[in-house]
């Protein structure tokens, strides 16, 4: 049996920090989205995670899959725009690879890779997006591929996640220099150049929360 490297508490702490992140970076996401979109990204994330915060005490005793399904459902129910439903879908699928775990069980590094893959894959599918289109996929797909590669080569989970995060941040930075092929920013054409994609930015911050909470 592979060793459990991330315990149940880790997965609750991540969500607690995502709630804080959505408040702390609200204005920043609004500014990014105002430049090339409709300016609702900060508000939407804040709205969604406030709903998560209200319900969190009730969900804490569920297993990881049910816990994240409830987080995802809250985002799907509360948040409009495109980012809310995409992140909602991410969390709905995130725990599926470990759905048979008990309420106190954590996950192995390999299981964590599978969980991230489910989440990223559903965002690609729902958003009909691939790398190079100035979306959150530009952060998430290269990060996920790096995570998988690093874990498969035997690196400890925190080191693997650091490599994934750095790769995701490079992906985020790459959105500055490309024309959008999805969403409202598409209409701007060349004028979107010079601006980061707001979804790619929040995705990098979300990956950072997953990294920061990992035990050394
Ligand atoms: Mg928007």
Give structural attributes:
Serine Threonine Protein Phosphatase 5, Tetratricopeptide repeat; mainly alpha; binds magnesium ion; 9 helices; two-stranded antiparallel ribbon; 216 residues
Structure description:
There is one protein chain. With 216 residues, this protein is mainly α. The protein has one domain (4-212): DhaL domain (Serine Threonine Protein Phosphatase 5, Tetratricopeptide repeat, Alpha Horseshoe). 66% of the residues lie in helices and 2% in strands. It contains 9 helices and 2 strands; from the N terminus they run E-H-H-H-H-H-E-H-H-H-H. The protein has a two-stranded antiparallel sheet. The longest helix has 19 residues, at 41-59. The two termini are 21 Å apart. The mean pLDDT is 95. The site of magnesium ion has 6 residues, from loops. Residues 33, 37-38, 40-41, 81 line the site of magnesium ion.
Q: If you average the pLDDT, what whole number results?
A: 95
Following the backbone from N to C, one meets helices and strands in this order, namely EHHHHHEHHHH
* Overall SS class: mainly alpha
CATH topology call: Serine Threonine Protein Phosphatase 5, Tetratricopeptide repeat
User: Which homologous superfamily in CATH is the superfamily?
Assistant: DhaL domain
Strand order of the largest sheet: 1-2
Major pleated sheet:
2 strands, antiparallel
Shape: globular
Query: Quick one: how many beta strands?
Result: 2
Give the percentage of residues in beta strands: under 5%
């Amino acid at each position: 049996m592979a060793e459990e490297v991330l315990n149940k508490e880790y997965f609750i702490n991540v969500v607690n920090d995502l709630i804080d992140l959505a408040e702390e970076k609200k204005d920043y996401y609004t500014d990014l989205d105002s430049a090339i979109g409709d300016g609702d990204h900060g508000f939407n994330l804040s709205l969604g995670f406030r709903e998560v915060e209200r319900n969190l005490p009730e969900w804490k005793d569920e297993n990881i899959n049910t816990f994240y399904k409830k987080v995802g459902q809250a985002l799907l129910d509360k948040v409009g725009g495109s980012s809310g439903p995409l992140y909602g879908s991410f969390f709905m699928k995130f725990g599926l690879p470990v759905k048979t775990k008990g309420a106190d069980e954590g996950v192995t590094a390999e299981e964590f890779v599978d969980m991230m893959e489910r989440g990223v894959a559903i965002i690609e599918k729902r958003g009909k997006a691939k790398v190079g289109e100035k979306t959150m996929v530009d952060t998430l797909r290269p990060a996920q591929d790096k995570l998988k590669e690093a874990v498969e080569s035997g690196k400890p989970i925190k080191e693997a996640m650091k490599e994934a995060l750095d790769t995701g941040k490079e992906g985020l930075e790459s959105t500055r220099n490309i024309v959008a092929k999805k969403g409202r920013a598409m209409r701007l054409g060349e004028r979107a150049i010079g601006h980061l994609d707001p979804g790619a930015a929040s995705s990098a911050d979300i990956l950072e929360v997953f990294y920061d909470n990992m035990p050394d």
